[in-house]
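[retry 2/3] Dihydroorotate dehydrogenase (quinone), mitochondrial: previous attempt timed out, resubmitting with same input.
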Amino acid sequence: MSSSKLLHKIKSMVLITSSATALLGGYCFYKNDERLFDYVLMPLMRLFEAERSHELAVKTCKYKILPSVDYKDPDSLNTRMQNIFLKNPVGIAAGFDKNAEAVEGLDKIGFGFVEIGSVTPFPQSGNQKPRVFRLIEDDAIINRYGFNSDGHETVWKRLQQLRSHQRYEGVIGVNLGKNKSSEDAVKDYVDGVKLFGPVADYLVVNVSSPNTPGLRKMQQKDTLKDLLVNVVKENLALDLPRPIFLKLSPDLTDTELKDICGIIKKKECKVDGLIISNTTVDRSMILHSQFNNEVGGLSGKPLKEKSTRMISEAYKLTQGKIPIIGVGGVSSGQDVYEKIRAGASAVQIYTSFAYHGPPIVTKIKKELEEILKEQGHQTVQDAIGKGITYQRKSWFGLF
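[retry 2/3] Dihydroorotate dehydrogenase (quinone), mitochondrial: success.
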């Protein structure tokens, strides 16, 4: 065979192989194949710096460059948070879609609800880069974004467009934050309630991010009481008041958590739910990754047990009367089930989505569906708080 014919044959084989590979890859992408994402696409994303990968992920959701999802949520996954109906209990946590750019894409992936933000009154760029670090060996992420936000006005316009022109009916939560340079933090949150109430299904008072100086001090008893009195008052002035959720730090002491649960029961401070928890600054757990000493909030698997324990304590302190959204280390149906048994009505994911992409959502839901069946639960709500045990006291209260 002449060299020219051999070269032509090799080129043809390469073209055929490349075409077949592209077709197979396209088919696997379209079918939301978990292996394609875990072994090809997500490792490719990790070739980019972490924040750049985050930006690309938001863009793919924004422009709906997404795989098809054949899985239909069964009735067993339906649940409620106060008067909010959820088709399934798996939401995307605040911090992924900070500026309400990708809501419809996230809904298409199969999330039961989408929480955007944190949103600050005025645009701000956040902390200096680099500010996001992958801890791959630990299935974790450390971030110190610092509430980078397009600001109230821009984000409100996007949500208004979604609601009024695109007729979007999915559940949207708006996570509210304060500007770093703000001289009146209470006003920042009150303004957020007033503006976003008409376009959100629920609102979140986020006073627990570790990346804004002084923010976590707003969880202190007197400061929190003053904040919630004003937030609740503004919410009740809306034509249609929205459920208010309070997002807490996992680094609270038992006494601090008890104080907060006491405050939120008071009529003038009464919130409609808790989100447990935000990221942690605790590094007492053993971490193996290169960036384990970076400053910022740690999310992912190392946070799982800590957040689940806190959910359980908060559920007991509130007698199960206040819905809880569980966040921290959720990457499987079993993780969701554990948080639900600890008292969560729904959960949110972030880190597992960053590492595994869209297929993780369907995977978690399928696993949860099977677990509920195996455990004899008709719905998610049947399992809420079923893992809680209360300490018994003697009849005369001395032991």
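[retry 2/3] Dihydroorotate dehydrogenase (quinone), mitochondrial: The chain has one domain: 27-383.
[retry 2/3] clearing retry counter.
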